[in-house]
Amino acid sequence: METDLPIFSKIPEPLPQHYPAVYWFWHHIPSPQEIEEQLAEIKQAGYRTFLIQPRLAFPIHEYLGQGYLEAYRIAMQTAKTLGLTAGLYDDYNWISGHAGGRTVAGHDELRERQLFWSSAKSERGVAFCGISGIHNCMGDGLGNAFQDWIYEGGQAGWGDWQVVRAYACPEGTPAVDVTAHCRIIANGPGGCQVQVDSVGLVESGARIIVFISARCITARLVNLLHPDAADRFIEVGYEPYRRAVGDYFGSPLAFLFIDQPYTGFYTWKEHFGNPLNSLMFDESLVQIFREKHGYDLGQALLSLVQEENADTPRLRCDFFETYGDLARSRFLAPLAEWARGHGLKFAGHELLGFVGGWGFADGLQGIDVRVNLGADYFAIDEIKDISSVDACNYHPQISARFGASMARAHGRKGCMVEQYSVPVGRDYPAPAGQWHLTLAELRSQAIRHLLSGASTFLFHAFYQTSGSGYDAEPMRNPRFDFPPGINFEPWFHFHPRFAEELAGLNFFLEEVQPQPCIALLYPLRSFWHDGPSGSFNAESAFWNRWLSEHGFEYDIIDEGQVNAAELAQKGYRLLILPGVSVVRNEQFSCEVERFVENGGWLAASGKLPLATQEKGLDPALEQQFREWMESSPRTIYFAGSREEGYAKGDESLPAWMATLQDGITVQPLDGLSMTLVTRQGNTESGPAIALFNDADEERHVRLIVPQSEGVNLLPERWVPARGELQKWTYFEHTDGGLQTDLRLKPHEPACFRFKREAREDVREAGTELPHLCRLDGNAIVETAGLDENNRLQITLMCNQKGPLRLLVRSPEPPRTSAASFIKEIHRLGRDQWQIDLDIPHLPQPIVLREGWALRVPHEYKEKPADMQRGWEKDHPFYSGSGYYSVSFHLDQDALNYGWELQCPAVHTALSVYLNQVWVGACGWHPYHLLLPDNALKPAYNQLQIAVWNTAGNSFYRDTPYQRSSPFPSGLDEAPELHPFFRLRLTAQ
């Protein structure tokens, strides 16, 4: 709320890293003027970090050419002048490693190589196995532009077919290696045929399984397992940047950013088995695997496609561990080494299976991230200097939590979260994006990320151009390349307000050190064994969602952190096992048992550990866990799926979970379910908490802060949007600790720090500093602080009639600005005062239903506006601003009250003028603005509301992505004027 009381102080200016970052999509080589103008616009919008990313509209042959690098250098020079930071985005479009095709040019051996498999029955000692109908699961639905980018000539062509292993698998007996009896009888760019002669080796009718590798002879993607791929990529993809802008490495170029290094994720007609997609392959994997494990790779490959047996957990885990280690050491580690050797931090992210979801494998249907880099996110993060993840769309999810947890595991704090958009609820290709994104949705998601542990919000993206409406092909036309291009949204000029608020919130959170009491295991070996459909996914989805929605501070940890002493040292009091079926070895159970014996708690759901990578299936291990969890009073086991129970409304968990957190308790006072996103921890001066009301209704909550003997806690409230700090003097000391009540408007954040002070330091003239202890009745505390003379200054907004009781602590009698409202004021005891007021009747709210006019810029005249519908009914393809106006009358008595304009339904941002005086602007809920008293007149008043919608109606027009009904625009409910009294309370 606005206030004229000088009780706020400005917090220090946030640093550049606190502000949001953005991709800057290039669609052509920009001129120096264009670079200067767009970087100035980026800075004006509130971004302080950018990453140049050439997209598919950018001619691939110009990538890393002389003109491109000259423009890149001018961009770095301009960034340095403007005080901006840049990240070196390391490839063309995305999929790090191909350098726009330069990596494989002249080096066909580096093109991606995949491992496929097929099976057939042996008939009269002969079997014919084939590979056919190969298609790229990532490319499905992305259109021809994707194929033209990934493949020379626009389609995948296969060659260099090689039999890796072939086995005859008679039922009930061990498999027989028949590789020597296998030969390729036909092959071509679309597949191959293999003949296996097993006469005299196995009986007729035995199942034959063949593993065949092939190189995609048209692919620009590289084989991440090849020992020379990283060096070649560095040579042709990184060194040109070093030569062109190496003197800017460190400043403004601060980090190198990789983006989803992967290969094809292929499936094919004859596919079967546990992995959903083909596997990367290099012949050296065979020898490396044998050296590490002492047996042939083929046994592990068979375990991936055959029915499970006692050895399956061991074999599958051995395979994916070796596979992932090789990809990381051969491809990622050299890139990180080059970056650090040239003064750049190493950042970026791989393809994440959890993106957009709550479960650890929720994110990408039909994609098996195990076949990429092994899904060992913690091992990959260990290579980085900046933990980085991506997030899809604008709903709660675990991306930021997972990223921050990985950072914490490696001694860092916070993570970078790349936010992108795809269509929701429609059968549209992903690059169609969301031109109808609102700033309110963007802001809410960014705040969720920060409160879940993010330190940098990276948006996807700021566009060089918005493309055209004549080509609807995904990605080739910039307009349909994962929009929105945020600078082409009509509401973009509201973005600086969002950026400043986000920076203020991030500044506050940087000082807060969370102390999670709960550790949720990321069950990597269960993932390796079970695959994306394993029960661990549903169980992890429940726990991640439930813990987040109930305000628990928790970390996601990997198995390497399951050490009883380390868990206790980090302050974890509860370990959760979400459908964990396979662990490394028996030491895991020993550490878990020791953790519980030393005072920890254990919760498990779904499967219990039944196998180890070391030994394979171990029924005794599962029995040990089951018996121990049934007998120990410090464990709880849910045999059924927690996710299924959650869907049915069963959220039951033991009462002791609520006692685990020793920090600040958030107690709802309104009877509503938890829609608050919170983050809390300690600062150097005391505990702190940030809250976000992630709901469309007001929330009323109480913060209860534990308080030590002999120490007072003095609250401070930070206002991120204004960069202001206030000594918050609305609190009460109780036996349960300090408590303060708080009303949060819809989608409002609030930040509090509680400074520890010795009691003698907070006394003046023998008493504590004055403060408001309690408020009973309908009033909103706008401000509660101390002025420069330590006088109590409270501002209340009273918008309902009725009794109001204030309990104030002060050595002198408190005074109010509305003496006529006072019924009684009396002293309760030493330095305590009770004030009883009776707020009189207020006028009825004024609903401005009639008399509105609307003008859109392409019309010359205003037209009457129907306030029951937005302008999209009459202007279904218009995106931009609309200007509403209305006149209303107030009598002289109405000027005795304050008035608040409330707009119930705005699509999507507005700016308001009253009698030619600017009132304010709102880009998100709630659309409430206080009308200036000096602008109101006792008779005729002119109210003007300018509204900006989204770009969706214009940019999706006459395309396959156009909706059957247009996106809402303007106002579709009548604005209202709500009266209130502002009551000021002062005390010495």
Mean pLDDT: 93
Major sheet attributes: 8 strands, parallel
Continuous helix count: 19
Distance between the ends = 24 Å
Radius of gyration: 32 Å
| Structural class by sheet pairing and helices | alpha+beta
Strand arrangement, largest sheet?
Answer: 16-13-4-3-2-19-18-17
Features:
disordered N terminus; single chain; eight-stranded parallel beta sheet; 19 helices; alpha+beta; seven-stranded antiparallel beta sheet
Structural features, described:
By secondary structure, this protein is of the alpha+beta class. The protein has 19 helices and 57 strands. The strands form 13 sheets. It has an eight-stranded parallel sheet with strand order 16-13-4-3-2-19-18-17. Strands 40, 41, 43, 46, 50, 54 and 57 form a seven-stranded antiparallel sheet that branches. Strands 1-33-32-36-30-29 form a six-stranded antiparallel sheet, with helices on one face. Strand 29 and strand 30 (687-693) form a beta hairpin. It is globular. Mean pLDDT is 93; it is low at 1-6 and 762-767.
In short:
The protein has 988 residues and is α+β, with helices and mostly antiparallel strands.
